[in-house]
Amino acid sequence: SAASDVYKRQEFMLSFLATFAQEESVKKSEAMNWSLQQRFKDGKLLTPAPLGYDRQKDVTGRYIKYAPLIVNESEAKIVVFIYDAYLTGWSMEQIALFLKDIGVETKAGGTDWNAGSIGYILTNERYCGNVLTWKTFTADLYEHKHRKNRQDRDQYLYTDKHTAIIPEEKFEAVQVLICLLYTSPSPRDCS
Q1: Rounded Cα distance, 24 and 17, in Å
Q2: DSSP secondary structure letter of residue 147
Q3: For the chain, which terminus, N or C, has the lower number of CB atoms within 10 Å?
Q4: What mean pLDDT is predicted for residues 112-119?
């Protein structure tokens, strides 16, 4: 019937367009990944400012694209407190509860601290002046799900990219303590 033929043609066109759109998405994803890899290789890092840092702005108030982070002194004191409290035996949960109770604001301006946000600060290499690229990546370009990079993409570690808030030794001591408390059955696995 004529209606059946029209339906089949429409179905064919939709299928063709969907295949074309899917191929375009794959090409765009490959181009984005190549662009990121080139920027990372060249040390051109677009680094969001975590608590304790601000991005530099020009005289018009616009962010300077590849400029190093600058220390935000009042926020940096909070970061130092978090590291010191953790090293003296406070849990991530206790630190979060304390900061919430006394009304300390997060980078986003709220007071909703939790163990995850404390863990993020305690494990972020940016606090000792370094930047590690490609910690996560979009594993599935259709679902846009992010995945932790476990040698799926080339990573680059840039040291001394900005002023450190936390000395490297203190950062490393916290990493060992986290490993001992959360992941390792044996102390020698955390060295």
Answers
A1: 10
A2: E
A3: N
A4: 96
Minimal CA–CA distance to 115: which of 96, 98, 102? 96
Q: How far apart are CA 42 and CA 184, in angstroms?
A: 36
Rounded distance between C-alpha atoms, residue 55 and residue 147, angstroms: 26
**Would you give the DSSP letter of residue 121?**
H
Classify residue 53 by its DSSP letter.
Answer: E
Sole residue written with tokens 């090293």: 87
E strand or H helix at 54: strand 53-54
In a 13 Å sphere around the CA of 16, the CA atoms on its Cβ side amount to: 6
CB neighbourhood size of 68 (10 A): 16
Alpha helices in the chain (DSSP H): 2-41, 73-87, 92-101, 115-122, 168-178
Q: Which residues face 39 on adjacent strands?
A: none
Q: For residue 136, which amino acid is it?
A: T
pTM over 0.90: no
H/E element, 136:
strand 136-140
CA distance 21 to 164: 45
The tens digit of pLDDT for each residue in 128-182 reads: 998 776 566 666 666 667 667 666 667 667 788 889 999 999 999 999 999 988 7
Pseudo-torsion of CA 35, 41, 42, 46, nearest 10°? 60
Question: Count of alpha carbons within 13 Å of 160, Cβ hemisphere only?
Answer: 0
